Amino acid sequence: MAKSLKGSYQQLMERSKRLTVLKTAAGIIQWDMETKMPPKGVEQRSEQLSLLDLIAHREIVDPEIGALLDSIEKDRKYESLDELQKRNVHLYRKMYNEEAKLPDELVAATSKQATICVNVWKRAKAAKDFNMFRPELAKMIELREKAADIMMEVKGTKTPYDALLDAFEPGITADKISDIFGGMRKGLMGVMKKIEASGVKPDSELLTRRVKIDAQRKIGQMAMDFVKYDTTSKEAGGRLDETEHPFSTGYFDDVRITTHYHEDRWTSSLFSVLHESGHALYEQDIDQDWKWQPVGNACSYGIHESQSRFVENIVGRSPEFLEFMLPQLRKVCGPALKGVRLDRFVTAVNQVEASKIRIEADEVTYGLHIIIRFEIERDLFAGKVKVNELPQVWNEKYDKYLGVEIENDSEGVMQDTHWAGGSFGYFPSYALGNIYGGMFLRKMEKDVPEWREEVRKGNYVPVGTWLKDNVHSKGNMYDPADLVKHVTGKNVEIEPFIAYLKGKMGKIYGF
Amino acid sequence: MAKSLKGSYQQLMERSKRLTVLKTAAGIIQWDMETKMPPKGVEQRSEQLSLLDLIAHREIVDPEIGALLDSIEKDRKYESLDELQKRNVHLYRKMYNEEAKLPDELVAATSKQATICVNVWKRAKAAKDFNMFRPELAKMIELREKAADIMMEVKGTKTPYDALLDAFEPGITADKISDIFGGMRKGLMGVMKKIEASGVKPDSELLTRRVKIDAQRKIGQMAMDFVKYDTTSKEAGGRLDETEHPFSTGYFDDVRITTHYHEDRWTSSLFSVLHESGHALYEQDIDQDWKWQPVGNACSYGIHESQSRFVENIVGRSPEFLEFMLPQLRKVCGPALKGVRLDRFVTAVNQVEASKIRIEADEVTYGLHIIIRFEIERDLFAGKVKVNELPQVWNEKYDKYLGVEIENDSEGVMQDTHWAGGSFGYFPSYALGNIYGGMFLRKMEKDVPEWREEVRKGNYVPVGTWLKDNVHSKGNMYDPADLVKHVTGKNVEIEPFIAYLKGKMGKIYGF
User: Fold this and answer.
1) Which of A19, A109, A243, B476 lies at a CB distance of 3.0 to 4.6 Å from A258, suitable for a disulfide?
2) CB contact at 8 A, B238 and B258
3) Is position B142 annotated as part of the catalytic site?
């Protein structure tokens, strides 16, 4: 007897729950590895993560899932499903098709290699020795190439690299990115030129004054309190830890962030806490009714990044937020802010300057760091660049786009962990995040024109509510371009982001 | 074609690895729940743990495991397996038979009832209301009786309670325990009487002097440094965190402990760090070649407890260790140790006094707390005591064995969480740990007569090496009584433990 549509759908959602529970379990173990694990535990940990990955993989590709999906999609009452249910079926089908085609051994080998490669990367970076890293990176790229070839078939993309991009930004292609990034480069270069021509020199020295870690902890707490990311109450669903590189991870009621405290770069932790809180609030704000379902996830990496950057940059680096914070910062910073007026502080944290390190880049030059990585990845997977050429290609592009000279590979091609972890196709999402953020901002300005005044008074609620209602709560109901269209009525465009930068930097740099 | 013996054995070991990796993954998640999880994450967490439990259960009872075991055991070359391989097969067979015979519904119902029962226990304990706890406890006992009946068949034990005991202390029976505990009671009572008659009154006030948490952290670090439990180096395989109740957890290269700092009971953290380090070193010292195999686990709960108590009591409460530590403790303790001479300190941390609460009991009276629980459990599962009689029976025994009057059930029958969680048969392991420890000590005194002098000089290596070589490294090669025989040449006997207590307390209390 044929299963009822309702019964099959219900069963599919039960499998979704099982899979999601597995993935969140692996997420906790991954978090532990990054934050708490004793160093000797690494080998054991890679066994755990690769087994959980394998079990999750088998859960996804179980032929029963294929049969369930078939029976739902071919049911003559399929059209009676509502939009949400159809989206869940669509997302599951996509994941199933993609994952079913990946051989178990490839999945396990990639996961294991990621753990090894990230660990070697750490040591190689400390030793400034690309040659130590190269063989493990080469193995990782080979594994990702194999996966990309298979994914290209399944997804029907034009190139293997497009298939990798789709994993982070569903529906996007290298051609579309090239197009958008072309406009972005022009726009960013334009803003940079105006800033250079302004003659204004931000007093960045004041950000290098020493602020004790304890004081920075208090500042981080202020930042979390401001955006209402709860890590302290009896109902808290978050926590803050310290890692070399800040990150966020988690699901609904347990979403965690990390930061890194630099005594001689105290605003770094302030802005990374804001950034990661932006990610965390997104995960926590997804519609609770969608928990365990495919739609109960973030839309894409780019949309995720738009939320973290919105909080970090659009809000966190706004003159209004800084005006609200400055008196409180004075109380804990001690001499570091002595005699520092608001405008000097605003200019310092909005300093625009070509630099070597992506994660330290400002809002304007950041996109250029991304363009470099995008071009290298695209050429790597098109066979136009070899692994041993990476340092040279990297350094040349940094010279060309940013005019900086890379002195060693630790500040060059080894600065980021992404490639070591196998995340090729990820970087463009960061810049797309800025672009989406600019579009969201333009719409929010219309819906909540008083938002800046409220932030100046220390009230984040209007912004937080707008982001929750328009973006967070929508989870994965739409592909990123569709979500943007749904929220703003527009196709993805670069203009609002550039206009935002021009407006803000124009005021600060007086152009 | 029939599988080769070697091939089947190899396959069994691969399954063992898979199962062990799963269990260690669940262990990390459990650790996270106890130490780091934001409060809101608890529901999500219980989904993760119960799914991992289910996956592990299915992994164990997979019919393929049964087939593998059959093919190995029935192979005509079975005798060509070495002792280690036979032990691995034996341990896997035992686990398979036990787990395969327990109906899924009973396992699920017990796990669910444990959660309910522990929660009700917490509330009932806070309310000092046994009647609130009783119905849930009765259900739990009923479920454990069902399991015990099945296990009795599988294990071929004389009584259902023996089957429960075997889960914690393989091979032991209630009759053997009664016999050993009979001697223990007599011996402990004898020591107690002499202490009471001595007229010496330890100055326990000095242990209630306030010592700041930060100072206690340094003391904990000294304790870990002393026993060489590494939580700080780049090769560390351990870590220390804070929880309400101290515990240890982990496997080989990642074994973690926790403690609790009481400002007004500062030696509590010192001794709990020593205790948990004793557990942790055991796990870390098991023969590395046995990783992922059944033999690559601790022998039993009792042997585990013998190791933690050895470090905490035999070493940690020895005059020699305290002599070594005192000057260092003075440096961090501030006024709390001002004017405190060594003998006064040694006497205070070795105070013997009948009390109501097991976890606060001293080395002498501890065993009496355990005898009470053992007798009650044994009679409960023999139908001689009913659930509603528990408080009365408990209080009578506390009066009889310890001479203390229980005023309410929260300090009486509801003080421990074990029964609420369904752990019947667990308690005897604690006292057996003391007894095994006494036997190990006697043998170590012969092998390493200089151990006390070395400890006095701050050198734990002779003790640590002896424990590693004789106990830790042996993993689960033997059942506990066989391990004890292997190490000491003797059957389990009470005399060495009592002699140890008499010797130590005699010096302190002057008898």
Assistant:
1) A243
2) no
3) no
Catalytic residue among B276, B283, B363, B377: B276
Residues B208 and B195 in one domain: no
Residues A235 and A361 in one domain: yes
Ramachandran class of B361: left when φ > 0, alpha when ψ lies in -120 to 50, beta otherwise: beta
For chain A, list residues whose CB is within 8 angstroms of any CB belonging to chain B. Answer: 17-18, 21-22, 24-25, 28-29, 31-32, 36-41, 43-45, 47-48, 51-52, 55, 231, 234-239, 251-254, 256
Say yes or no for a CB contact (<8 Å) between B235 and A40: yes
pLDDT digits (tens, 9 = 90+) for A69-92: 999 999 999 999 999 999 999 999
Chain A interface, best mutation among B19, B35, B36, by max A CB count within 10 A: B36
Same domain, yes or no, for A87 and A198?
Answer: no
pLDDT digits (tens, 9 = 90+) for B322-355: 999 999 999 999 899 999 999 999 999 999 999 9
Closest residue on chain B to A33 (Cα): B28
Average pLDDT over residues A173-201: 95
Is there a contact between A237 and B43 if contact means CB atoms under 8 Å apart? no
Chain B residues within an 8 Å CB radius of A256: 38
Closest CA to B73 of B18, B3, B19, B17: B3
Interface test with A, best of B22, B33, B48 (most A CBs within 10 A): B48
Closest CA to A30 of A248, A220, A355: A248
Domain range for residue A51?
A: 5-100
pLDDT tens digits along B257-286: 999 999 999 999 999 999 999 999 999 999
**B465 and B318 inside one domain:** yes
Query: How much is the pTM?
Result: 0.93
Within this chain, do residues B16 and B144 fall inside the same structural domain, yes or no?
Answer: yes
State how many domains chain A has: 2
Q: Kindly state whether residues B298 and B368 are assigned to the same domain.
A: no
User: Do residue A28 and residue B24 have CB atoms under 8 angstroms apart?
Assistant: no
- Single out the residue in A100, A123, A157 at which a domain terminates: A100
Chain A residue with the nearest C-alpha to that of B250: A41
Mutate to test the interface with B, among A46, A254, A281 (most CBs of B within 10 A): A254
Across the interface, do A237 and B37 touch by the CB < 8 Å criterion?
no
Note the residue count of chain B.
Answer: 511
- Residues A384 and B225: their CA atoms lie apart, in Å, by 54
Domain membership of residue A113 (yes or no) is no
- The answer to whether the beta carbons of residues A242 and A31 sit under 8 Å apart is no
pLDDT lower than 50: segments of chain B:
1
Shared domain check, A439 and A300: yes
Q: Are B230 and B327 found together in one domain?
A: yes
Q: Tell whether the torsion through CA atoms of B229, B235, B241 and B247 is positive or negative.
A: negative
Q: Confidence band (pLDDT; 50, 70, 90) for A1? A: very low
CATH of the domain at B339: 1.10.1370.30
**Structural domain ending residue among the three candidates B427, B458, B477:** B427
The pLDDT confidence band at residue A160, using thresholds 50, 70 and 90, is: very high
Task: Give the whole-angstrom CA distance, residue B163 versus residue B165.
Answer: 5
Amino acid at B341: R
Query: Is position A162 within any domain?
Result: no
Residues 6+ apart with CB under 8 A from A90: none
The pLDDT tens digits of the residues spanning B389-414 come to 999 999 999 999 999 999 999 999 99
- In a domain, residue A161? The reply is no
Q: Minimal Cα–Cα distance from B299 to chain A, Å?
A: 21
In a domain, B169, yes or no: no
* Residues whose CB is less than 8 angstroms from the CB of residue B211 and which lie 6 or more positions away in sequence, other chains included: B219, B263, B266, B333, B334, B336
Distance from CA of A9 to the nearest CA of B (A): 21
Compare CB distances from A254 to B40, B231, B233 and report the shortest one's residue.
B40
